[in-house]
Amino acid sequence: MKILVDSDILVGAFRKDDTNNFKAISLLKLILSNHQGYIINLVLMESATVLSHRIGMDAVKLFLKRFPELELTIIDMDHNLEEKAWEIFTKQTKKGCSYVDCANLASIAHYHLDKIASFDGFYPKHLVFLDGN
Fold first, then answer.
1. End-to-end CA distance of the chain
2. Listing from the earlier edge strand, what are the strands of the sheet with 115-117?
3. Which InterPro entries match (predicted)?
4. Is the residue at 128 inside a domain?
5. What is the pLDDT of residue 107?
6. Does the residue 19 lie in any domain?
7. Which residues in 103-114 are b (16+ Cβ under 10 Å) and which e?
8. Residue 107 maps to which CATH number?
9. Quick one: how far is CA 57 from the chain centroid?
10. What is the pLDDT of residues 101-112, one digit of tens each?
11. Whole-number CA gyration radius for the chain
12. Residues 9-41 as b or e (16 or more Cβ within 10 Å = b)
């Protein structure tokens, strides 16, 4: 399967004190050993920003140094993908919607990805990869 990885998985795996640390690490190991992993460049940026706020810049530097070990294919947002993400984003009705989450959905559709590894309740259940299915 082709699985997109969301920032909560990356942050959860990197932060030892994160409540999802064990689950995030397990999911990443499963993805890396049995599937093709993908990430959009915005998620990488978002993950670094979250780590900066929660831990500090030394953690960000270590995260960026170790990130290539994951061997995730990085999807760069081009103009067309950005437009699709804006279309999805502007159709949302709930307060506090994330543009990056909508960009993930646009990427899943555009690149025909199978699932997204995320703890975020925003994504449709049929797309979420949390237990190997």
1. 10
2. 73-75, 36-40, 2-5, 115-117
3. PIN-like_dom_sf (IPR029060), PIN_dom (IPR002716), VapC20-like (IPR039018)
4. no
5. 98
6. yes
7. bbbbbbeeeebe
8. 3.40.50.1010
9. 20
10. 999 999 999 999
11. 14
12. bbbbbbbeebebeebbbebbebbbeebebbbbe
Domain that holds residue 109: 2-121
Count of domains for the chain? 1
What sign results for the dihedral spanned by CA atoms 42, 47, 53, 57?
Answer: negative
CA distances to 3, 25, 133 from 30, rounded to whole Å, are 11, 9, 11
Nearest CA-CA partner of 117 in 35, 50, 62:
35
Residue 67 falls inside a structural domain = yes
Task: Label residue 38 left, alpha or beta by phi (over 0 means left) and psi (-120 to 50 means alpha).
Answer: beta
Rounded-to-5 percentages of helix, strand, coil across the chain: 60, 10, 30
CA-closest candidate to residue 38, choices 108, 109, 124: 108
| pLDDT tens digits, one per residue of 5-45 | 999 999 999 999 999 999 999 999 999 999 999 999 999 99
Q: 43 lies in a domain?
A: yes
% the chain with pLDDT above 70:
98
What residues have CB less than 8 Å from 100, skipping those under 6 apart? Answer: 7, 40, 42, 43, 46
